[in-house]
Amino acid sequence: MALVWLGKETDGGNSPTLWVDEATDEYVIQGFTVTDPDALTVIGAIPDDELVLRVPRRLMDHLPKEARGPDDV
Asked: pTM of the entire structure?
């Protein structure tokens, strides 16, 4: 992995963080585990090799402009 730090958002002492892996052109996100039963019902089955995170919306401000959709620019 060739992680490059893009930014973080402190939320009550915790720090959801965003990196880009330049080797794979993928984002790596540190966030909070989704445990809300209603949200998990909407999400549905989660494969064993995946997990669902929640992060503050403002963390996405650290995405490079070219990675954002047309409504976000």
From this structure: 0.78
Spatial separation of the C-alpha atoms in residues 3 and 25, rounded to whole Å: 10
- Going by C-alpha positions, the residue among 8, 2, 43 that lies closest to residue 22 is 2
Q: pLDDT tens digits for the chain (73 residues)?
A: 799 999 999 867 778 999 999 999 999 999 999 999 999 999 999 999 999 999 999 999 999 887 665 665 4
Contact of 59 with 20, CB cutoff 8 Å: no
Spatial distance between the Cα atoms of 10 and 71, rounded to a whole number of angstroms: 25
Report how far Cα 21 is from the mean position of its chain's Cα atoms.
Answer: 13
> What is the bridge-based pairing of β-strands 32-33 and 26-30?
unpaired
